[in-house]
Design a protein that fits this description.
The chain is mainly beta and 271 residues long. The chain has 1 helix and 15 strands, in the order H-E-E-E-E-E-E-E-E-E-E-E-E-E-E-E. The protein is rod-shaped, with a radius of gyration of 37 Å.
């Protein structure tokens, strides 16, 4: 009888110890899961490269446009970028990049809840006129894993106007009269003016063939050039020599405006 009671007590104690161990293991599992969640890491310590909850990014405008409607082309848009660490661990190798300009700002290490402010200026000339958006990209390391967080801001921009004028003045006839002679060399003064509010890359050409010139014009700027050409037989029809001068304005390599100017010269009969 004594042995039977003793055995029963042993079995009861074993069951209690087993239940206690299960409770402890289960509790540790919950604790680890909560700990992992707080750190923003997964069970294998991996981190999403595009997790927006790692840092908070805030744009703060520090400049004021001249117009109430927004920034004009050529104005500077000044701003701060506030980057705050939302995690409970330190972030390292933190860098802020302005996607549209390529400007980079190294923050380095960012402690938990720490905020760092980056000051920057962006000229509206460089803004894509179809988008009017600036993008801040924050990269860095969390637990030696890379992360990337992106924030965009819309900039109010006054209407963009791409425009040019082209003026052509021919030297007077060598004879002093009103007509030129066949084969006569004539010089033309060509003036191209940027009458819009965007900076333009400009190509000028005469008759789609002769003397191509390439230059850049800021708003309000102009460029003068001289073209010279001998009046040829193929240029003349019914006693009139016709020449077409063209100015083509581009932004980022794309044609945005094109203007032509036609010049007609009276030519003496070859007979």
């Amino acid at each position: 009888m004594f042995n039977r009671k003793f055995s029963s007590n042993i079995r009861r104690k074993k069951r209690m110890i087993t239940c206690a161990l299960i409770t402890i293991i289960f509790g540790l599992g919950i604790g680890y899961a909560a700990f992992s969640t707080n750190l923003g890491i997964s069970g294998d310590l991996g981190v999403s490269k595009y997790n927006p909850d790692i840092v908070q990014i805030e744009f703060v405008e520090t400049s004021t446009p001249e117009s109430q409607d927004g920034y004009d082309i050529g104005e500077d848009f000044a701003f701060d970028i506030k980057v705050k660490n939302l995690k409970k661990i330190e972030l390292t190798n933190v860098i802020v990049t302005i996607e549209e300009s390529g400007d980079e700002y190294e923050i380095g290490d960012l402690a938990s809840a720490e905020e760092h402010i980056v000051q920057s200026v962006f000229n509206i000339y460089d803004l894509d006129p179809e988008v009017n958006v600036l993008t801040a990209v924050v990269t860095g390391l969390i637990n030696d894993e890379e992360f990337t967080v992106t924030k965009k801001i819309n900039i109010p921009v006054v209407g963009i106007n791409n425009d040019l004028t082209i003026e052509v003045v021919a030297d007077p006839p060598a004879s002093g009269g009103d007509s030129y002679s066949f084969g006569e060399m004539v010089n033309y003064t060509v003036t191209v003016t940027n009458t819009g509010n965007t900076s333009l890359e400009v190509d000028t050409v005469m008759n789609e063939l002769y003397h191509k010139h390439t230059f850049t014009l800021a708003p309000g700027g102009d460029e003068k050039m001289i073209y010279g050409n001998a009046i040829g037989e193929t240029d003349i029809e019914n006693g009139i020599a016709t020449y077409i001068f063209k100015a083509v304005g581009k932004r980022s390599g794309e044609v945005v405006v094109e203007k032509n100017k036609t010049v007609e010269l009276n030519v003496n009969s070859q007979e």
